Inverse folding.
């Protein structure tokens, strides 16, 4: 901690003023719009989110509009982002805000965490980006930046101890810009692969640039900070998505009709293939449990 540069914040914000990314959710402080962006950005790349974000807010411009919308419409508009349960949870959150909070979001982490689908990270992000509060918003990019600058150790990895160390360096006055700057810096300069050390504004203070070669930095980042997603094609998620898309295309189909879509695939499961109808029934039950579809009299509809 003692080695952390005293002028880190001012240097970072100066860099950000020249290099910040033009992202639509940075043009608002509306907690509803901030929340939409945060939920969309979970496990989804920025380039995929940008057009969906605009379309979603055009259809549901306010928390009340989302609360009042048919869930099927919300799911349709979310299609293409993946992890469709996020759309249902987001609408449940909007309904809770509309019904229990008069359409106003709580302005505390604890209050936000009481809402459906909002965990510690999302609550902190809404507090920082909507209300400019000095909460700790630590994603993979932010952890990597601090680790390379000497805050935390490889042993700590992604632990809460590292988050605690970072908490001591959060801006008290410029939390919104500070966190946006950190995320941009990690996404564009202090990247996991091929970090731009030569042009880095912290090159002279950076612990890692003195300690590691670029390849070693990449190896450490891969080992500690990168998350590995399971294969999508052929997974349960893949077939759930297939069923949901088919229901969006044509509502009211029988489970047996949906099974025909699955039967066109070479395999339904890499480990234990099931008959198409049995697989379709299982997937329909899963999707219904997650409130993504509804089955009525043997036919399947959007909720």
């Amino acid at each position: 901690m003692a080695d952390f540069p005293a002028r880190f914040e001012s240097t970072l914000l100066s860099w950000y003023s020249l290099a910040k990314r033009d992202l639509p959710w940075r043009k608002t402080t509306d907690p509803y719009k901030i929340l939409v962006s945060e939920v969309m950005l979970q496990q989804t790349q920025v380039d995929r989110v940008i057009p969906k974000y605009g379309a979603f807010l055009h259809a549901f411009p306010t928390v009340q509009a989302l609360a009042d919308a048919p869930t099927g419409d919300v799911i349709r508009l979310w299609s293409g982002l993946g992890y469709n349960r996020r759309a249902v949870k987001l609408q449940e959150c909007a309904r809770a805000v509309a019904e229990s909070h008069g359409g106003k979001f709580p302005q505390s982490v604890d209050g936000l965490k009481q809402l459906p689908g909002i965990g510690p990270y999302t609550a902190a992000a809404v507090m920082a980006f909507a209300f400019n509060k000095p909460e700790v918003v630590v994603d993979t990019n932010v952890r990597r930046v601090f680790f390379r600058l000497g805050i935390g150790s490889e042993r700590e990895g992604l632990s809460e101890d590292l988050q605690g160390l970072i908490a001591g360096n959060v801006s008290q006055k410029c939390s919104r810009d500070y966190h946006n700057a950190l995320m941009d810096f990690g996404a564009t300069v202090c990247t996991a692969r091929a970090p731009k050390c030569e042009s880095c504004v912290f090159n002279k203070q950076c612990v890692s640039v003195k300690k590691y070669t670029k390849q070693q930095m990449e190896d450490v980042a891969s080992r500690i900070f990168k998350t590995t997603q399971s294969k999508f094609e052929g997974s349960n998620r893949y077939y759930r998505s297939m069923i949901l898309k088919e229901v969006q295309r044509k509502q009211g189909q029988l489970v047996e009709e949906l099974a025909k879509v699955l039967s066109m695939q070479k395999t339904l499961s890499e480990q234990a293939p099931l008959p198409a109808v049995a697989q379709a029934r299982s997937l329909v039950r899963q999707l219904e449990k997650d409130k993504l579809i509804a089955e009525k009299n043997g036919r399947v509809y959007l909720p």
Notes: Strands lie at 253-254, 294-296, 299-301. The two ends are 52 Å apart (CA to CA).
